[in-house]
Amino acid sequence: VMRNQSMLRHVKLQAMLVALLVAAWNVYPALADSRTEQFDRQMRPILEDYLRIGETLAADSVEGVHRKAESIAKLAGSLDPTKVSGDHASRYEHVPARLRSAARTLAESKTLEEARAAYKELSKPMGMWASMSKPKGIDVVYCPMAKASWLQKKGATRNPYHGSEMLRCGQVVKAH
Predict the structure, then answer these.
(1) Of 75, 74, 79, which Cα lies nearest the Cα of 35?
(2) CA 38 to CA 16: how far, in whole Å?
(3) CB-hemisphere CA count at 13 Å for 115?
(4) Handedness of CA 40, 43, 48, 52 (dihedral sign)
(5) Closest C-alpha among 140, 147, 144, 135 to residue 173
(6) For a disulfide at 106, which of 19, 59, 118, 173, Cβ 3.0-4.6 Å?
(7) What tens digit of pLDDT does each residue of 4-47 get?
(8) Residues 161, 142: contact at Cβ < 8 Å?
(9) H or E stretch at 110
(10) How many angstroms from the chain centroid is the CA of residue 175?
(11) CB atoms closer than 10 angstroms to residue 6
């Protein structure tokens, strides 16, 4: 009888350990997701400024672009990719520095053409982030004439690289 009770306790202990391991396994992805979500929350104001810049360039203007670019550079300085975990964690590592550098270049641009060239560089880390985080309602659009991509809200294509010259030039390559 004592042997059976000992075996029963051992089986119960094993069952509890398995349950704890399963619970821990299920919590870890949630932790990784919450860390990525934290980074994504920090990216939202950057995305909003970026989208406004794209709309402005598509309208053949630079009004407010420098201010929005300065805002992106400042916000990018406070991003912390070290808290991101999961499959793409290492890819987030360089996003803040690339955003900051490209945004500073855009903030210093003197002409519409320079602003558009700088926006191409800003679109690279934004596109990398979007491909991993998949922000809802955002499309990744590619223009073969500009040989560049950009992010925009779902809807009609509004090409920031050519503006009124070729406003609808571009194809959605990823829809989120």
Answers:
(1) 79
(2) 32
(3) 26
(4) negative
(5) 140
(6) 118
(7) 666 556 445 454 443 443 343 343 343 345 668 889 999 999 99
(8) no
(9) none
(10) 14
(11) 10
